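To: structure desk
From: M.T.
Subject: fold request, one chain
Message: Could you run this one when you get a chance? Sequence is below, nothing fancy, just the single chain.
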Amino acid sequence: MSSQHSISMSLFSMKMDIPELFGPRVHLRPFHHSDVAGRFALGRSPEIVRSFGGNPEGLPPYRESDAQSWVDRNIEHPLCWAVEVDGRLLGEARLDGLDLHDGNARLATGIYDVSQLGKGLGRELINLVLSHAFETMKLHRVDLRVLAFNERAIRCYRACGFVEEGRERESARIGDVWHDDTIQGMLAEEYQAQAN
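Reply: Done. Structure tokens follow.
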């Protein structure tokens, strides 16, 4: 590893200033300790747990301490936003593994209220993060992983301009069943082409 690469990696292990991003309906903002109540109110949906690769069978009750841990983890993350709609916390959006040298990051998002899925909020929040990643941060590439059976999420990512680049066969086990992960990616030039 070059010293330049080491330096850029160490810069991104530090906490960054997280800007607020505004869309027509979605507001992305830094997390606050006061978000524990909002996360606790969302609870834990078996459908959403499964879409993230967790086993939905026999889920324990979602406790306030779980919400506290989730909020604390997101506050400490170098670049993580709270997803808010109409003043209500709905989930998170993150750029993981930021690397200035290679100009890339991995997108991770989650809306935790099943009743809010399928309304275009995911597309709006993803486009806000992509705008920040490509226009403000000048990244070269953003990618993500999504379970192959998660067709709703895949449709959303495709609508935002992501392209499937590969598949990791049987990389996730849910209960006793193995599932494939797909790798989706977008390059800066692809983002610019669709933005214009």
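Reply (cont.): The longest helix spans residues 121-136. Let me know if you need anything else for the meeting.
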